[in-house]
TrEMBL record:
Superkingdom in the source lineage: Bacteria
Pfam families from the UniProt entry: Cpn10
Subunit structure: Heptamer of 7 subunits arranged in a ring. Interacts with the chaperonin GroEL.
Underlying gene: groES
PANTHER family registered for this protein in UniProt: 10 KDA HEAT SHOCK PROTEIN (PTHR10772), 20 KDA CHAPERONIN, CHLOROPLASTIC (PTHR10772:SF63)
Family of the protein in this entry: Belongs to the GroES chaperonin family.
Protein name (record): Co-chaperonin GroES
Keyword Secreted assigned: no
Record localization: Cytoplasm
HAMAP family associated with the record: CH10
Length: 97
């Protein structure tokens, strides 16, 4: 998948996973009651952040294709080519699955 967007510094572009539409017991959840997903896949990664003191580039620890967990209110929602994405800092990512 190719996006025409290149995040800067320590930012990543994430495609959020679909919200759960059914509970484990089989009850369907209406769209108004669905929770915002906290899981997604990285589709673009910036080059990394420069250290304040030494000025050396600190490379990113995540890469394209990583499945991640992030905070409920992390990132900024953007619409690119009719699809919803999140742009967030790498520090907003809690874990790589």
């Amino acid at each position: 998948m190719s996006l025409n967007i290149k995040p800067l510094a320590d930012r990543v572009v994430v495609e959020a996973a679909a919200a759960e539409t059914k509970t484990a017991s089989g009850i369907y959840i209406p769209e108004t009651a669905q929770e915002k997903p906290q899981k997604g896949t990285i589709v673009a990664v910036g080059p990394g952040k420069y250290a304040d003191v030494s000025g050396t580039l600190i490379p990113m620890t995540t890469k394209i294709g990583d499945a991640i967990l992030y905070g409920k209110y992390a990132g900024t929602e953007v619409n690119i080519d009719g699809k919803e994405y999140l742009i967030m800092r790498e520090s907003d990512i809690y874990a790589v699955l």
